[in-house]
Amino acid sequence: MDSALRYIHNDSDLSTNSSFSPDEERRSKVQDVVPQALLDQYLSMTDPSRAQTVDTEIAKHCAYSLPGVALTLGRQNWHCLRETYETLASDMQWKVRRTLAFSIHELAVILGDQLTAADLVPIFNGFLKDLDEVRIGVLKHLHDFLKLLHIDKRREYLYQLQEFLVTDNSRNWRFRAELAEQLILLLELYSPRDVYDYLRPIALNLCADKVSSVRWISYKLVSEMVKKLHMATPPTFGVDLINELVENFGRCPKWSGRQAFVFVCQTVIEDDCLPMDQFAVHLMPHLLTLANDRVPNVRVLLAKTLRQTLLEKEYFLTSAGCHQEAVEQTIVALQMDRDSDVKYFASIHPASTKISDDAMSTASSTY
After folding, report:
1. Over the stretch 279-296, which tens digit does the pLDDT of each residue have?
2. Distance between CA 295 and CA 284 in Å, rounded?
3. Quick one: pLDDT at residue 282?
4. 322-335 and 296-308 helices, crossing angle to 10°
5. Domains within the chain, CATH numbers bracketed
6. How far is it, in rounded angstroms, from Cα 266 to Cα 45?
């Protein structure tokens, strides 16, 4: 194992020439890390006849073990495994391809950036167009794989992220939830311009998903996006995103869209995605107008957000400006609301209930 680990850190250039004569091909699979007979036995697991005579799942077992074999042999012996890996990646059984898809990011760490770009990226691209059962493997570790690529190669995948919104089964909401989780991680890998141009449309789409669990993760995604874009210089993209949130959700004809706007504002406040003085300028005026919303569920969530989240921020506890006065006037109006639930949440002490529990219950029970 010490030997294998030393090989992994060896950055020497390796030939990727695959046009061998039969003798050269046999020699190409010779190494001195493990007994050659053991490696030959492992490589023979992809032989179709073995599936008929030994075990129908033998190719899947071979795929499962491949990263461990690659780690043991070291990247300088990858030529021994390359052909076997390509054979498994095109196996007729989707379970074999799925196994490889779930571990391709680990193999990329073992092989390094040069071999990954040459041998793994084409297979990764094939998995992206495969069945959902295979695609979920690369999606769950999308950030782990893309961060290992050169920035130019990584940018090529920006154009393909939109394709993850399309699934074989539209009811496969967990696929979209995983996409939202991965996009949160991917924010650090791309520039503000790329985030605004490519990730923003996907995030806003997910915020309007039919399934509340997907929307809930997407609110976190959008709030983190607001944070990244606001911190950029100049913060133009951040302001544009906020204006789009106001237009598409804060003024949405559907009450669920307006409720989504309150959720996003709540998350922005809780996670300190904007300085409170900037929040007071860009988002709060539009948030407070929802005190007159015709749907009680929107006003209930607004009351919770103001009482349990906004008023816990020091900016609104210590300042005595027009922003604090506007919040206090809104809360007084909500305390006199015709709906008993709105009155209750506008009147209670901020510490009397957990906001995360209330928000999740509202998300699941109201729409």
Report:
1. 999 999 999 999 999 999
2. 19
3. 93
4. 130
5. 31-149 (1.25.10.10)
6. 54
Q: Encoding tokens for residue 150? A: 């050169």
Amino acid at 339: D
State the amino acid at position 220 in one-letter form: K
DSSP state of 211: S
Tell me the C-alpha distance between 361 and 358, whole Å.
5
User: Could you read off the pLDDT of 193-247 as tens digits, one per residue?
Assistant: 999 999 999 999 999 999 999 999 999 999 999 999 999 988 899 999 999 999 9
Encoded tokens for 172: 């496969």
Q: How far apart are CA 16 and CA 68, in angstroms?
A: 21
Residues 6+ apart with CB under 8 A from 62: 42, 45, 46, 84, 88
Which CA distances in Å does 106 have to 67, 100, 172? Answer: 7, 10, 26
Q: Is 191 left (phi over 0), alpha (psi -120 to 50) or beta?
A: beta
- Can the peptide bond before residue 234 be classed as cis, meaning omega within 30 degrees of 0? yes
Residue type, 316: F
The pLDDT tens digits for 77-100 are 999 999 999 999 999 999 999 999
